Amino acid sequence: MDGKNILIAGVGGQGLVIATKIISEAALEAGYDVKTNDVIGLSQRGGKVYGSVKIDSKVYSPNIPHGECDILLAMEPMEGYRYSHMLKDNGMAIVNTYRIPSTSIQQEVEEYPEGMLADLKQKYNVSEIDVIKVGKELGNTKVGNTVLIGIMAKKLDIKKETWEKVIQKNVPEKFIDHNIKAFNIGYSYK
Amino acid sequence: MNEKVVLTGNQAIARGFYEAGGLIASSYPGSPTVGIIENMNNYKEIYSEFSTNEKVALEVAMGASFGGVRSLCSMKHVGVNICADPLMTFTQSTINGGFVLISGDDPGMHSSQNEQDNRVFGKFANMAILDPSDSQESKDFTKIGLELSENYSMPFMLRITSRLCHNRSVVNLEERKDIDIKAFEKDAYKYCMLPPYTEKAQYFMKERLQKLEDYAYNTDLNKLEEKEETDTIVITSGLVYQHLKEIDLDASIYKLGMVYPISIKKVKELSKKYKNIIILEEMMPFIENELKINGIDCKGKEYFSFTGEIQIEDVEKGLEKAGLIKERKLNEKQRLKVPSRSPQFCSGCPHRPIYDILKKAKVNVIGDIGCYSMGVLPPFEVHNINMSMGSSIGIVKGMRKAWDLAGNKKPLVAMIGDGTFFHSGVTGFINLMHKLDKNANMTIIILDNKTTAMTGGQPNASSDKEMDVSIEELLQTIGFERIKVLNQYSYKKAKSVIDEEIKHEGLSIIVATGPCALQYRMRHPHFYVDPDICISCRSCIRTNCPPLLMKKYDGHEKLKSFIDPDMCVGCSICAQVCPVNAIKRSKPDDDLKNK
């Protein structure tokens, strides 16, 4: 596999940290060098957060240069759109369509932007899914990121079993079953 | 053992301390270094604690070093200000067991009130400074720092930045090496810093640094990567070195693992070989100044920003300005405008109702450091002043005195959290009693959520899981009389108490209690809005609870409020502020009625 640069964008508290951990451990298991960065700190709670995972035979900076991202994992549509300029031309965006309005939208100072997905589709390959809906069907709304990782995993040259092993290692025991199912829903998502 | 894992910088430092045979680690929680002590808990050999503040934490680790064991103390950059007093003397005396101070600097101020470059602090304190560039180096440098600390009898600083604390990269694990505990031998020249002993200590301090500068000449900590047929060398350190490696640049690189002291002899030799010396570093021109004061011609900050993180794009732009690379065309930003998204109080956060009450009270409020610092931000914008840990109590007194002298009788309110109270608020409270004017109108609200919430819920003296010190009883012991305790979820009662205390001409203290909704996993049946009753007044919206939003309902012309059931934790504040009872609980329950 050629190197892959993955950018994850979302809202503080959505689980970006654990997502980068899972992706990086899967990459290491598969024999790659890997570096991630993500934003932590409660001051980020509810704020805009983004992180990166870089996978290659040798990785230097954990940061992705502007326009060199292969895959954008958007845990929230507006946040994904915010960082979409980081994508390569024809890059891939995997978007959770469940919206989380920001304070400025709640207070009616700004409006939630419409037409973002259509705009993304003009330049990039877009997969869209409401992961909260998927989570509800599985009986656990906290598995959304695993669904998105599942969709992405299909595009990477890392074995399915490796992903499942790493997910099992990183989620609390009582939620392993939900997460494996969520991963598979993502993995077989068209 | 030859196991490879991916670790954050924080995890790698904890691992390095473990492998180096470290035994005592202390800290005060502050982003970006919180994870260091949290990860120490994985190693049963190590005693670790979150102390009440950084000064106490440093004193604990100093004591451990004097006692002959390897010790570590971690904090965010501003924490070093708090422990500066013992630190400046510690670096003048000596260590016994190896000692490393971790300073978590925050270029770009992701979660900090300022952006101080603690390399300057390290030099000021006469400490050696190591500056890692990834997780592997974070682990290695922790071990090397402890060892060198013992070899040179001096405390070491490991300067790390937010991005590195939270980055994950591949680390090789090694076995733990058990280190014998060193005997403590009585020696006033080493450990008692009073004249006449201190003069000798000054020379000792200088000699250690000189020896270390000789060591820096060809240590493996610094790496020289030479390219042939180039007349340029870039001197750099830390994460920006990794950014530089992403760029195909026709220049040699001298990467410093130890940024203080720098071997001037080495750099002078290099300066004879290269026409251009370019310094690439984040924040202050530290390396640049070190070279310039030693007569070495170099350029740095004229190409790179003095503030914020230096990203790969910034390195490119700087090198372009220096004429070393050509401009790269960047993709254009989004066509649609993307609204802002600031951090906000969590669903069910007990602080939110207090801020709604204060906003309505239209008073001048002095804030402090913690989650409740978000009281500065829209939509509350309640704090007029917000400075540093524990400062609100001293500031409110000074401002009150000033206003009273000027004849301004407007009420003043100060806010402080429980963690901050114990960190450095208590001394301010004791000082409040000193020359206190009976009629000086000050209202102090202590937001007691039983945890240090901002950094992810570490225990503090207020935590029922730990020391469980009663703030109310402590204040009574100091001598405060007018103290009211209220439940933050009981909106109307809280509002009447706060409004009344603000009017009171004199000092009053309110301890507002409510457990952190995140740390104590609040989850009650959610609330919903009946659009037929809702009058679109937006009282609930103004409380800024994340699940609330104005929405179009079928059959209603006006927007009505709506609660996202997946985000609501059922704290009931929105229902309590609704003037027409349009907000109802989805299932009846008795556990959260107004107490």
Structural write-up:
With 190 residues, chain A is of the alpha/beta class. Chain A has a single domain, classed as Pyruvate-ferredoxin oxidoreductase, PFOR, domain III (Pyruvate-ferredoxin Oxidoreductase, domain 3, 3-Layer(aba) Sandwich). Chain A is 38% helix and 23% strand. In chain A, strands 2-3-1-4-5-6 form a 6-stranded mixed beta sheet, with helices on both faces. In chain A, α5 crosses α6 (144-153) and α6 packs across α8 (176-187). With 595 residues, chain B is α/β, with parallel strands linked by helices. Chain B folds into 4 domains: 4-216, Thiamin diphosphate (ThDP)-binding fold, Pyr/PP domains (Rossmann fold, 3-Layer(aba) Sandwich); 223-332, Rossmann fold, CATH 3.40.50.920; 351-513, 3-Layer(aba) Sandwich (Rossmann fold); 527-591, 2-Layer Sandwich (Alpha-Beta Plaits). In chain B, 33% of the residues lie in helices and 18% in strands. Chain B has 20 helices and 23 strands. In chain B, the strands form 6 sheets. In chain B, strands 3-2-4-5-7-6-12 form a 7-stranded mixed beta sheet, sandwiched between helices. In chain B, strands 15-14-16-17-19-18 form a 6-stranded parallel beta sheet, sandwiched between helices. In chain B, strands 9-11-10-13 form a 4-stranded mixed beta sheet, with helices on one face. In chain B, α1 (9-19) crosses α2. The longest helix of chain B is centred in the middle third of the chain and has 20 residues, at 197-216. Chain B is globular. The N and C termini of chain B lie far apart (58 Å). β2 of chain A pairs antiparallel with β8 of chain B, so a sheet runs across the interface.
Put the structure in a nutshell.
The complex is a heterodimer of chains A (190) and B (595). Chain A has 190 residues and is of the alpha/beta class.
| Run of helices and strands of chain A | EHEEEHEHHEHHHH
Described by strand count, sense and barrel closure, the largest sheet of chain A is:
6 strands, mixed
Order of strands across the biggest sheet of chain B?
3-2-4-5-7-6-12
Indicate the structural class of chain A.
Answer: alpha/beta
| CATH class (first level) name of the largest domain in chain B | Alpha Beta
Helix content of chain B: 25-40%
**Strand numbers in spatial order across the main sheet of chain A:** 2-3-1-4-5-6
Q: Which class of secondary structure composition applies to the elements of chain B?
A: alpha/beta
CATH class of chain A: Alpha Beta
